[in-house]
Amino acid sequence: xxxxxxxxxxxxQSSFDAGIGRLVDLLRIPSVSTDPEYRDACRAAxxxxxxxxxESGISGELHETGTSDAPGHPVVYAHHPGPASYHGPHVLxxxxxxxxxxxxxxLWDSPPFEPTIIREGEPRIVARGAVDDKGQVMMFxxxxxxxxxxxxxxxxxxxxxxxxxxxxxxxxxxQYLKDHVDTLRACDVCLVSDTGMxxxxxxxxxxxxxxxxxxxxxxxxxxxxxxxxxxxxxxxxPLNELTKxxxxxxxxxxxxALPGFYDDVREVGExxxxxxxxxxxxxxxxxxxxxLPPEANVGEAGYxxxxxxxxxxxxxxxxxxxxxxxKGAKTVIPSFAGAKIxxxxxxxxxxxxxxxxxxxxxxxxxxxxxxxxxxxxxSGLPCTVSTDSPHMVLAKESLHEATGKEPVLIGCxxxxxxxxxxxxxxxxxTLLLGFALDDDRVHSPNEKFELGCYEMGLRTHIxxxxxxxxxx
Amino acid sequence: xxxxxxxxxxxxQSSFDAGIGRLVDLLRIPSVSTDPEYRDACRAAxxxxxxxxxESGISGELHETGTSDAPGHPVVYAHHPGPASYHGPHVLxxxxxxxxxxxxxxLWDSPPFEPTIIREGEPRIVARGAVDDKGQVMMFxxxxxxxxxxxxxxxxxxxxxxxxxxxxxxxxxxQYLKDHVDTLRACDVCLVSDTGMxxxxxxxxxxxxxxxxxxxxxxxxxxxxxxxxxxxxxxxxPLNELTKxxxxxxxxxxxxALPGFYDDVREVGExxxxxxxxxxxxxxxxxxxxxLPPEANVGEAGYxxxxxxxxxxxxxxxxxxxxxxxKGAKTVIPSFAGAKIxxxxxxxxxxxxxxxxxxxxxxxxxxxxxxxxxxxxxSGLPCTVSTDSPHMVLAKESLHEATGKEPVLIGCxxxxxxxxxxxxxxxxxTLLLGFALDDDRVHSPNEKFELGCYEMGLRTHIxxxxxxxxxx
Lengths: 472, 472
Hints:
homodimer; alpha+beta; Alpha-Beta Plaits; nine-stranded mixed sheet; 15 helices
């Protein structure tokens, strides 16, 4: 390890609590990007990041996105040229400052935007966005701050993009990348911290991500809510009809019934299957961790749980609504009913094709006298990253040195659509160094980030920056 | 017509506006019985009725219902012995002071609990409960008031029950009737105003009502909301599973797929079929009135629209909920998903049997690793009333005299469960004299009651009271 890195690690250690205090400040800002009510909060979170970066000597600015009719949330753009003598890779760091909605609020033990540090058990910080992705972004920003505070400079050439729309489909990011392609193609490699460790003791590099297609379908029937006594049995009930249609979306053997859905799926390789098997996953234990019995081990027939999570596509309804949803009874036939549906996709599926396929399938099943309102909430390409590039080697070495533990190569069932866009639009590979744990309750009430994991991420980034500075 | 009745009709005419003002006062009270938030408002509405009755010389009191663990809304009980010389029938008048929830609020043109009188077009009063059932109850209470104010007395023997739980399944009413059976079995006939006219020009007596079974089913899966990327495809998603199960509830030809559901259904008789056909219903026009095209004329195969509404059972989902129901996208697998389901039933179906049948059917389809939470939100017997009793003859004559129009005998797709209970528990037939119109938006935003209909009801009750006083 370079001497400078060792000193920077010490510096980070001594200012660890101050860094957590700054993370708390960022977590207090309710930057829920999908909900227009939190529009100003999203901008405030972006501005907060600019100010944090400037304290490390990195100049940044907000770049607006979207159109005047449909304005997006701003991108935090920052750049530092590094030392004149720098010969290492020009790093593009990507993260997101927006968070998922906090509902259902009543299931949180502490308010989602009042970060709470719990010292009992594994010390951890509980808040919406603690690990996804504010905490993971802050590991990198605090690594930069430690380098700056210890050495007076940033030792690498660096561009930073912090997005504000990751949790609502990154609808404007591809256009942003296209608009800035001349600047961004000067980068050599992307670095993203939005994935997980294998477990608390084992750091990981993620090399396969699922893609995503997210849609919403509203079925409209009568032009008003109707009394189910007066009208029941004589007109189409959008709730009945929606249920009948979507009930057909799930085929036998846990497969999606959309025609051609599996045509472009790359089969799980023998090598992956063997490697993942060697991880020794206890499926029953996994289920128990979310309160499910062994018989809940369902899904596409013929694949292990980890294969279903990392390498097989899915179809999930993420929301259903319509009619009376309060307590008690109301005898209503509503004028509409809706469903939110997402597909997790794997190489080489095309999200746009899947979305079209769903819409065509729904249209072909339009109940008599009804009409569909179909919405595309965004998509992301599935992605598989090369595991033997020089950058990947640096990343694995940094993980090992910073944590003292051998990292493993894993897949991830989630989607980071921008990774596909970086590859497609900028020709860049992405290093996915993440420090979340499976039980971090990402997207759920009581989301947490363990301080031990945060510390490993902070140390890994400090070491990786040092290695890049020493390279070339 | 008796001279007294003519004078009372004149009296009612001259105080018509004052009576509407009193209805406005009652409609201002948001007595939504299904929502615990409006508990006090329900009691206030009940108390208001007591005071109105006392101004007509009728003493009443609130009778509590339910248990200390699950208190119900009070019943308004009132009694007047009538003149000592009275030989007519002892009338049991039943109505309800509770109303449906007002949501979706944003679709109301005026606030649901700020009654608005509109003079353009057909003069009408717009408010939640305008016609169901506060307006229809007030036609009778104001008829009593007119008799009292004109003659100084109430000329018939009368018991009044105003329920506060009709819109949430009348869960405590049967027990109430059983507890007061000794008093109530002194009555000779029930009188209920909670049904409709055939159309604006044609008053009607309703002689067939559908029954109801209302249930709720919540499917529980994981003990927490999950990230659909991390877990999608490897665990049961309650939204997917709920949709799969309920999609099977609807069989071919628009029929309910519950085993044995049609076993006890009394087939539509040739006479009914002919009589209803002679009403000359324009089904396409009916559909157009709720914004539906002719191809929306769906339902159980082999039956006309009116037969499907009045004489065939149905199965309707009245509410679906689960996962993310806000704007935009959230990639969640929720820990539960729920559906509210109701069945409209016809003679001789047994609501309790249908509820059991649904629960058994659901249990037999429990998705692996999940569990059902099943709730019975109440039920009501289907009911067919004799059309040639002396009371029915009086009712038809009163309608004719008070409105100058020949009434027709009709069925009704809705349910007034208490009519079944009056028959079963007290042995009483019920006269259903209602003045609602099909487009009154019962249970919907902008519920209204036309003042012309209200006036016909008021006059009919005045004449009917006079005829009963003159009878025997």
